[in-house]
Amino acid sequence: MFLSKGYSIFSWHHASSLREENGEKLAYNLLTEAYQQHEQTLLKQLLSSNSLSLSWTDVVIPLSHEIINTIRPDKNHDAEDLDIRHYIKFKKLPGGSRSDTRLISGIVFTKNVAHKGMQTEIDTPKILLLQCSIVYQRTEGRLMSLEPVLMQEHEYLRHVAARIVALQPDVVLVHRNVSRLAQDLLRQQGITLVHNVKQTILDQLARCTEADLVTAVDAHIGRPRLGTCKKFYLRSFDVERGGAKTLMFFEGLANAHLGGTVLLRGGGKQELTRLEKVVSFCLFATYNWRLEKSFLMDEFAQPPNSACEFLDDSSKENSPKLPTAETKVEKKSENGDDEVFVRAEPKQHLGVSEGKKMNSETVEDFTDPLQSSYHDVGGETKEILSVAELPFSNSFRKSLDDTILCISPYLMFCVPFLETEVGRKCKLRKFFPSEVYFSEQFSNQTKVKIVKELEEEVKTTKQSKPLHPFLLAKITTSIDSNDIQAMLANFRACGGSYEKREILCKPPVTPDEEILKTKDKNYYNKQDVLEINNHQRLSVLFCSYSHESTNSPAFCVNPWIVNMNFYGSNDIPLGCFLEKYCFRSTYNCPSKPCGTPMFKHIRRFVHNAGCVSISLNNFENEFAEENIVMWTWCTKCQGVSPVVPMSADTWSFSFAKYLELKFYGGLYTRRGNTPCGHSLHHDHYQYFGYKNSVASFKYTSIQIWDISLPPPIVDIQYDTDKHQTELIDDIRTMAQKGHEIYSLILEKLACMPTDLEGLGNHKQVLLKEQAQFKQKVEEVQLKLTSPTIENKQFDEGGRTEELYIAYWKISDSLIRIKRLIVETVESWNLRLSETARKRDNDRRKDRASYTDLESPTVPEAKTLSDTDISHSESSNSSATAKKIKSLDQCEGDSDLSMSNSPKCHQRSQSDGTTMSHNEDQNDFKKDYDKKSVKNILSQLLPSSTALTLIPNPFNTQDHYTLPTGVSVPIVVYESEPSSIIAYSLNSCDYKKSFDELTARKPSAEQTPSPVVKRRSHSQDKNDSDDKTSGLLGFLRNSKNDASSPTNSTTSDNSQPADVPPEKTEDAKKSKNLHIEVQFQDAHCNFFCRVYFAEKFANLRALVLPIGEEGYIRSLSRSVQWNARGGKSGSNFAKTADDRFVLKEMSKSEVQLFLEFAPNYFSYMQKCYATGQPTLLGKIVGIYQIIFKNNTNATLRTNLLVMENLFYNRTVTQKFDLKGSMRNRLVIPDNQEGEIVLLDENLLKMTCDAPLYILPHSKAVLTAAIQNDTEFLSAQSVMDYSLLVGLDSENKELVLGIIDYIRTFTWDKKLETMVKKSGILGGQGKLPTIVSPEEYQKRFIEAMHRYFLEVPDHWAGLGKGLEF
């Protein structure tokens, strides 16, 4: 162990020989002056807050310093406690003068001797301390003679007294009672006896007099050590009201540095009680400064050279101070309060936030126009707050600037995050009450205001009702007289009650009085955030880890918050910490599985915005010093301080205060022959060495993340510039494409014989159509340059709705132009074919070739043949039959049951629209034309073997010519299933069925847990929608007219005939909530089932401000999205605007969602209504999609549409977290594209770059996880994940729970049992699949470890969540 005390005997306390070398004298004097000013200001604050006169300053400060010079607990030797206040006892003696207040170097307590004949003044007494009583224990319950008992008692006590006398004490103090006989025996021997002494007094005497505490006085008492002191005596003091108080003194103690007593005089009892608190705290602060100053001198700290420099530096970190004088602040609060009156006492100093008041004189210069403006009226200075001060006008900042919260000078505390301008506007602020922190300084103004209102109310109620004449009448006649009886009867009729006297009058209760009562009721249950005693602590997040440990990548000591009270609980002297936890060779890692030496570990203390890391190193060479040595090294300029031994006061310095210096003492630099201007506590490594071991303390700034929950409103932000650019490019492309099409048609017509009938008319029609096309294009181009579009002020002025609606209309016009191009190609192919047929008839005899009609300028032109027009269904009825048959077979694998007897509604070509009559007629004509062109082309086939037609300008999988919907022209893309959903939701059939569905108003009661439901209806599982289908009926009916584009829809309300009605009741209720939509064109048949149409529509109405039309437009385009790293293997897609994600669902997942869907809707509506935080990513729709085209390409899938949690975010890393360590590692090297990392990836990152969050964020996150997992567990849902995205630009963690449609089924139970048994390996890790309750518990615990709360100086002083 250590060869000596572990520290140097040199002390900086009252250092006499200071050297100029290394700036020692200058730094010492600066530190001394700074604390003197700080001490003066602190004492004035304490006296004012305790309603004491400032004149006590002249008594308290000298008294505190005298105590510090006398009392010095040494933890390394004989001290048991760190706090000096535990070694000082205060005795309050009301009366006398303040000059009588003094320190007694000894133990003083209120007690008298047992008998007046005993000595009351003894020099150098021998003191015996007894922890037992001196009485004879009589046997109770036995009948015996009194005389023998008395003889036994006398004999026993005589022996006890003899044993005590044999020890030759002068004073005996007994904890308990002493028999009168024993008292007399001891008095006869000249021994002074004091009995019934408190245990604390005995402990103090034992510590200070070096006496042993004797627990028994039997025959085995032995030879205990007796204590001694220089003098024992009693004194009586006159107190208030003519009383007297006797005190017992033990002065001149052997260990005088371990105990003392302060006699407080010069005031009443209550005043002295308050004074005791002030003196006690000043003593605590002064003693800390003695140790802190020693540490600062040992580490060559250089404080700011002047108060001005300090103020200039610190003002950057704090709010500007408010000037002096009586101030009337007019402000509008959220509650509508008109005025708040604030009376500020004149400042005697200029401070900078808590604990940094430096100047002791009043600053008279207020010329800064940004701070305030003054108007002198009648010689009085009145302040009018300027607009620039509004950000600092809240009561917290003003009070904080005027309050010292730290006992050390130069330390700067920042405003709590939720009280900053950024914090008040942050997204999580709404979950907390309007006033997060409580202080008397905040509430005084409100209380005074309410009390004044009450006083005015009392005045207005006084004498509001005049007294009855009977009460004022002087009765001089007989009580039986008629006048008296009449007056009495009238008095009784009016109520007959006597008004109470004015003093006892109780005013009616007002709302303000109720507020005041409520405040007072909880007044003492709150912690005052500006009470200095509440800040003598430090909360740190502690952890320990080693990359070489068997625990890696996990921590050896998991991060946990340690609350360290300065010189109290969880605190330890700095030297003791180094000796015990750094330099002791026998100290091992607290984690039992870890056998790695401590010098390979790193320990971290995290607080506020910084982290102090401790690492150990061993060297071959030892230090020559026998004590702990210390030095620093600058990381920026590589300067090194001299290596010096640690002084005794530094050894005793609080480790918690040392950490506080590291976190908040950024103003200190390093002195020396080559001084360093960088921050000593932030930019320097601090080293402590002993023998061949070195402990390194390093401060680093940390990255603190804010958290972002899924927003309650799913908003879409439109990039108008990008949208406009895309539209301009698109319309330019369409104009070019249209020009090419019409040019190609013109070339075809030019190749025709000029004498053909109708050729001239065709050219005229072509020119007319081309002119109309150009007109439409120009209209769109004109809209793109309209004032609404060009004026970007709309966006800035908040009128974005007008802007994006204008873009919507332009996009619709563009789609109609594309549709026009497709229809033009089809109609002209028809006309050219008719013309070619006429030409064939004219030239039938010479069998002329058709090759002269080909256009050499269009190499991509399509040659029409038997195989090229398979899209014409009317030409080949067998193909249609085959297609319908294949779809029927496909329906056999449907995910959900469809009706066997569908009530299909066959619609005409035009009744699927809500356009004007003319548009309906045009649509009908176009549809008829398309039907005609297919019939004519099929008739041409036998005679036309190589006719070259105009190619389709778009992909054949893009369907432009479907009937127009309700509000939005939608193009259906076979490669984008979301467009099928959008078209279905926009169809007139869906709108009609939805209106019918809402008119029925089905019940929406909450359903039980899916597991319970499955147990009671397990036999209904086969009653899926596979057996019945509205789509089959639609396809069978469409055989008669398969070529005509049509829409049809049904509400899914039919039931299988072979299932008993009672078993299908739940299914029937569920089916009534779904809507089916079928539609087709010449190339493809489509089917879409919309699950819970009304419920999802209601949910979208709550969370989607863009409305249903915006939702449909968002779904109209989508792109495939390959999210790698996950294990589900599901296909993903994202809408083109990136707002929604489409995920493929399995058949079982759909069934599970249908079972707990009502509870899901109820929970989401509850979260929205109550404003409680939730992490559930909002599912806004679930759909079944089926289609089959002419090439037999078939798609059958179930899609879930949910909000994109990372919308409008720049996410650098993504994590999918389940709380499990089994197979939860992704190796990025083996992945391509977008990678989603898992739990083990996060753990590996956590040791080096943890995810730190603020306390308020952790509170919201914990509440959200608790609420959501309880809901999911109640639904028997498990295997959900927390998706985390790191948004480095905004410093936010974007969070959301996804994949919460998986319940605990029998196959999951089997997987759990197999994995727990270890049959398939897994290295003893818990399985990823457990029961919902176990999964919830594991999930919560894991998220607590993943997201680490960083405490600040205000931890534990604010109110909790409120929603």
Notes on the structure:
The protein is an alpha+beta fold and 1363 residues long. The protein is 36% helix and 17% strand. The chain contains 35 helices and 45 strands. Strands 3, 4, 5, 6, 7, 8, 9 and 10 form an eight-stranded mixed β-sheet that branches. It has an eight-stranded antiparallel β-sheet with strand order 18-17-19-20-25-24-21-22. α3 crosses α4, α18 runs antiparallel to α21 and α22 runs antiparallel to α27. The protein is elongated. The N terminus is likely disordered.
The portion of residues assigned to helices is 25-40%
Total count of helical runs of at least 4 residues = 35
Q: What value does the average pLDDT take?
A: 77
Sheet having the most strands: 8 strands, mixed
* Rg measurement, Å: 45 Å
